[in-house]
Amino acid sequence: MEDNRFAEEKHRVNRAITAPQVRLIDQDGNPVGIVSTREAIIMAREVGLDLVEVASQASPPVCKIIDYGKLKYELQKKKSEAKKKQKIIEIKEVKLTPTIGDHDYKVKLASIGRFIEDGDKVKVTLRFRGREFAHKEIGEKLLNRLIIDVKEIAKCESTPQLEGKQMMMMLGPQTVK
User: Fold this and answer.
1) Domain range spanning residue 134?
2) Over the stretch 48-66, which tens digit does the pLDDT of each residue have?
3) Distance between CA atoms of 116 and 172, rounded to whole angstroms?
4) Contact in structure between 81 and 130 (CB atoms under 8 Å)
């Protein structure tokens, strides 16, 4: 299996460049033109930098005279910045029973609202015990009431489904348009 660090490395440096000719960009960002790879490597060494292939799919490949260590550092820095900005969505679970009291229902509804506002998804589980299982329609009514109560802040991602002795559904935050 391939190591992930090397799978992302897409730049060929100095002698690893196999094309006979390259389109060269100097250290200041100015285009030099098409030169032989050997000549480009010599030019890069003269200024104490590396020849890095930046666009291998072009014909001839585009190479730039830059400090390869600095390039790798900046790419890694951009990657870590992007990682900081992403939001990890968690799935919170709220458990109910068909015989839930009105006050308890409001408390659970407030919890669902808080989870949704934080940007998390909510898995609502309704568990049937004993003879409650004979009256599945009560559970369905409860979950449909819940969908109506949270429709301002959440959308129902999966409708109530019966799995064994429990009924489940997923709620997610409303997408802002």
Assistant:
1) 91-173
2) 888 888 887 888 888 888 8
3) 7
4) no
